[in-house]
Design a protein that fits this description.
Elements (H helix, E strand, L loop, with lengths): L10 H6 L2 H10 L1 H24 L4 H33 L5 H31 L13 H23 L2 H8 L2 H26 L22 H12 L3
Helix pairs in contact: 2-7, 3-4, 3-5, 4-5, 4-8, 5-6, 6-8, 6-9, 7-8
Length: 237
């Protein structure tokens, strides 16, 4: 049976794979699929993180290139375990290993999308004056940059999950079960992923200080509070 499965050789073959092929990879080539997905996340999210951090300093670009893939991989681990418990309750019969592989595949798509968006992010960063010039922490330009760069990550994350919809339908055998599982995965990805990103700060939420990997103040505040404040600045409230 495994001899008829198309080989996973490139990002193109992964992105073009249908539900049947993805299902076969997840069941029969779990290790190979997992290694490819980790590679896609590290490279794609790393490029996007480097574009984010380049607005502050070259060292911050390196830190962000490490922290954004790390945030995604930690979110994958947490959600893989959590969704491994939720999916059977919602009607989808998957093991913890298969759940982790499915979540990892969704985030691999996210990573590849972020890699493709890294030139766009770099263009935004390049055309926003640094803090030492015209931009201030409370300025509209900084709020727009925050929301745009975080919005790209959110859009890529949703796209990565939704791309698994045909696979979930085939695996579950019913669209309503697949829909419940997909919504549960989107919710857990949002809340867990945003909190991990808030602690690691791969984004440019606090560019005023010297470049650093982690700071004590990173454990204060909230991702959603910061996004809301940036939105208020953008709307000039």
């Amino acid at each position: 049976m495994t001899a008829t499965i198309p080989s996973l050789e490139s990002a193109a073959s992964f992105l073009q794979a249908g539900a049947t092929t993805l299902h076969a990879w997840a069941v029969h080539q779990t290790g190979r699929l997992g290694r490819f997905c980790v590679w896609a996340i590290v490279v794609g999210a790393g490029l996007y993180g480097a574009a984010l951090g380049s607005w502050c300093a070259p060292m911050q670009a390196l830190y962000a290139a490490l922290k954004l893939p790390l945030a995604i991989l930690l979110t994958t681990l947490g959600n893989g375990l959590l969704n491994g418990m939720l999916a059977p309750l919602l009607g989808l019969n998957v093991t913890f290993r298969q759940s982790l592989t499915l979540v990892l595949a969704g985030f691999a798509i996210t990573g590849l999308i972020l890699g493709a968006l890294s030139p766009v992010a770099l263009c935004l960063v390049w055309n926003t004056p640094p803090l030492a010039a015209a931009t201030q922490l409370a300025s509209t330009e900084y709020g727009f940059l925050q929301l745009a760069l975080a919005g790209f990550v959110g859009l890529a994350g949703i796209t990565g999950c939704v791309r698994l919809w045909p696979l979930l339908c085939q695996w579950a055998g019913r669209a309503d079960i697949a829909g419940r599982v997909l919504l549960a995965w989107l919710g857990t990805n949002l809340f867990l992923g945003s909190q991990i990103c808030w602690v690691l700060r791969p984004f440019i939420w606090d560019p005023a200080g010297a470049p650093r990997f982690l700071g004590r103040e990173y454990f204060r505040g909230s991702f959603f509070e910061t996004v809301f404040n940036a939105l208020l600045r953008l709307l000039d409230f």
